[in-house]
Amino acid sequence: MRRRPKTGVDYSSTDYESHTSPDIFFGEMTHPKVPTFDEMMWPTLQALKETGGSASNQELLTRVAQLMAIPEEVQNLPHGDGPRTEVEFRLQWARTWLGKVGAIQNSERGVWSITAAGQTLAETDVQKILPRVRAMYRKPRSGSEQSTTERIEDEQPAQRWQDELLAILQGMSPDAFERLAQRILRESGFIKVIVTGKSGDGGIDGIGVLRVNLLSFQVLFQCKRYKDSVSAGAIRDFRGAMVGRTDKGLFITTGRFTPDAKREATRDGAPQIELIDGEQTCELLKDLKLGIRTEMVENVSVVPEVFREFELSS
Known about the structure:
The protein is of the alpha/beta class. The chain contains 14 helices and ten strands. A hairpin with a 5-residue loop joins strand 2 and strand 3. The longest helix has 15 residues, at about 85-100. The chain is globular and about 70 Å long. The termini are far apart.
């Protein structure tokens, strides 16, 4: 029987190992210090309430990690060979199960919001979500039928396309990825983009000019095909290369940024650096329709009332 975790567990403690249930992740190897996805559901609702009722994936990830006191080294543990961390992967499942009971919803722009039903849930209600959702999908099993988790996974707004895309991007040559970044910036409104990576220009891969109404801004950018995390040191090195040239920087990666790197990018008194991680890169390419094709499913239905009107006209 699965043990219900104690409330108020400090996930930075090694004692958390005794509260972890390895059966929750569908036979995959688990990291003992990473909270299971069901333990993330209540903090997810708390995070949404604290952020005004809605949040992006990144905002949710940051706040849930803070609420659960997850150490940075645990936050950086990768999920398998994919681009996401184990914490991101499990948080994705937490959002999915909360969505199944109507506690949260997701917009087309990838913004999560808490519903009126979600606002009324207490922590004890959230603990009942697992059996509730499993009951929704429970059917007599046969050899050809899917398990509960398999059916939920099939219905989930899958991020498999992002994993496939990131694998392609990470397999590109450095020059090709720089040219792709150049194209992304041009498609995004930059009026001039020059790639300087070949010259080893102090860690700067390119220079762009962004025009906003009557003003133009010079932006230095760096683009890296990272699979793992970009550290704060990489951000400091990039900022050092910017000194005396511009106050605006852009760091594009196929990986992710550590919490320290995010703090370094927005440090007070230093030039701000905008960060675009792998997930945001995928969404940019999708919005720009650059290497991504979105297919709309046509839903055809018959409206009998229309035909009855002809009978009445006789």
